[in-house]
Amino acid sequence: MDLEEAFQAVGEFGPYQKWAVAVLVLTQVYMACQSMLIVLVGATPEYRIEQQQGVPYSHQELLQHVTFTGDIDSIVTEWFLIKQQAYKVGLAGSLFFAGLLVGNVVFGPLSDKIGRRPVYVTGLFFEVVFGYVTAFAPSYEVFAVSRLLVGLMNGGIGLVCFVLTQEYVGKSYWAMTGTLTSMMFAVGIALFGALGYFIRPWRNLATAANSSGVLFFLLSATLPESPRWLYSQGRTERAEEVLRYMALRNGNTAKNLMLQRVATPTTKAANRGNRGTGVLQLVIHPVLRLRTMVLMYVWYACSLVYYGLTLGAGETSGSRYMNVAMYGLVELPAYPLCMYFINKHWAGRRKSMAGFLCLAGSACLCTTFIPENTGTLLSVMSLALLGKLMVSAAFNIAYVYTSELYPTVIRNAGLGVCSMSCRVGGILAPFVPSMRALHGSMPFTVFCLSGLSAGCLGLLLPETLNRPAAETLEELSPTHSRVLESKALLYEDEKWKLNNK
Prior knowledge:
It is a single chain. The chain is mainly α. The protein contains 21 helices and 2 strands. The chain has a two-stranded antiparallel ribbon. Helix 8 (174-198) packs antiparallel against helix 16 (334-341) and helix 17 packs antiparallel against helix 20 (442-458). The radius of gyration is 24 Å and the shape is globular.
């Protein structure tokens, strides 16, 4: 039997898979806390400087004459990151996102080569270790380096965690597990805002936010290797062992479970070919090249619009803890929308992603026709939040859709490259608001054009709903695709005949 038939025999989403996916999904709460940490621990309170006869102070003299008036304990108040030193707060945040970018590129191909589980468990262990270094950093320099290393691990294991939630279950549940992963990340942001409200000292907050990672590491250490990855590497017997273990934990026997051996005489050559896959194949392979180019732009546009609108929405006054919570909660309605649309035959992955991107762009376009501070329900802020809701939905679909467009042997490498372009969009997003100097509507015009163009380009990709998942590069060949498509059409035709008898 092939892999999808094996999952149907084992149970596509049985009790054991639910437990394994729950561990991986809940780990997103920990990762969200690490991603948002600098927002609260880097908060700058109000302060006053006692000037004497207008004489400027050096930084060392400034420390003796500055008084913080706000009731905030942060790295700013501990290391006096104000005036000429204020850039260090932003630098620590930039180092985290730089680590994310590098982690996306390095960990993706690495997990395709040596396996999902060892990369994920090792990365999570070191993220927890570096997280405690952050909490107990004796100086700003140690703090900044630890944020870079935490970002490196966070970016890498985030991809592997997402892929594992897909590869532990049958393909019909990929959309649901992918959506749950993104949803729990948003919930984690909201929970971090609540945690910061109750734990004010920054070192205590960093320790509490990092401690949940210890629990998730211990739980993750019990997870097995991905049977899909094992099968794609030609380790069929080991894949069968994992599937039988899943079946046993699900309450099924599956004694006769045996996966088909592909091309027995040339198995070693095929394995060598699979081991040779990597980032280079995304450029060499004609099918993968087109998909990668389109997906990289889609991910870049999603990130640019998402973070750009977030910066605009974050300018509102009020409690910083409430703002952080709302930053996460505003995304939650997007995920039920995703789960509904991407499983409908008239929408699917392709049209849903393109539609949400175009709606996000349209919402940004509408802001250019509405004056600011109207005081009505239809305001620039409400349209910006609507745009963020739409682009959050598109972002979530992009994760699910991308994992289905790449074969198992190169899936993490493809996700890594796409996520790298996503980080580029996130890095550029803060500079877009400065374009108001050219024209007041210029930032929203950029977001509008990015969303609309990415939505249109996304229509060039093939639909993956109810299509078999590719395991190897050979399955992307036109002949193989036509055979799979014919089988799918025959199946639908037989199903239609049965329903209309």
